[in-house]
Amino acid sequence: MSEDHLRLVIVIASIRRGRFGPVPARWLCDETNRGGRIEADVIDLAEARLPEVAGDPAPPAVRDLAPWLAAADAFVVVTPEYNGSFPGSLKTAIDWFRDEWRRKPVGFVCYGGPAAGLRAVDQLRQVFTDLDAMTVRDPVTIPHHRSAFDLAGRPVDPGLTVAAGRMLEQLVWWADTLRRGRLAPTDTRLGTLQEGIR
Questions:
Q1: CB–CB of 75/13 below 8 Å?
Q2: Number of neighbouring beta carbons within 10 Å of residue 68
Q3: Cβ pair 86, 115 in contact under 8 A
Q4: Angle at 34 between CA 110 and CA 180, to 5 degrees
């Protein structure tokens, strides 16, 4: 991939039967790839089948997923709200990895009833901050999600497309900025910091 392109990984958090997550994930992936600058892939945690108990060495499912996450410049997590929080399957996926999330931006598509899954996003912001990741300000929120998309998988409310564009714009800015920071030699970053302190 050229330096001008950014790789976005969209993570479907729920693994429950009958889940809604694949619908907005596919829509967002299509919207993103239509723009040309960002190349988006979808990772479905229901297919990843990560074990719940951490161990050493990492099992094959973890080793298989690691390169996909490591190659990403940015992430979007598509999550419901279960009992006021995010799914346990997502916490398992987050906990199996560390460097793969580090110093990268994370956006959110959340869905649910009237609250649209925002409590799950609030908690995820704390988790990703602890992993040294940067969460973008504006999530895409989908209240009353079962009626939010038509049979073709397109949002009924055009405001969702506007919200997705706003989130992607923030992701691109942070992805560009943080990628430059990750690629800069450590001594250069330290030298710039020391210059600023003087």
A1: no
A2: 14
A3: no
A4: 75
Tell me the C-alpha distance between 25 and 77, whole Å: 9
DSSP state letter for 97 = -
- CA-wise closest residue to 103 among 144, 145, 148, 72: 72
Check if the beta carbon of residue 104 is closer than 8 Å to that of residue 133: yes
Contact 120, 145 (CB under 8 A): no
pLDDT digits (tens, 9 = 90+) for 16-36: 999 999 999 999 999 998 877
Q: Are strands 134-135 and 140-143 parallel, antiparallel or unpaired?
A: unpaired
Q: Cα(45)–Cα(43) distance, rounded to whole angstroms?
A: 6
Coil, helix or strand at residue 4: coil
Q: pLDDT digit string (tens) for 112-163?
A: 888 899 999 999 999 999 999 999 999 999 999 999 999 999 999 999 999 9
Do 6 and 175 touch, CB atoms closer than 8 A? yes
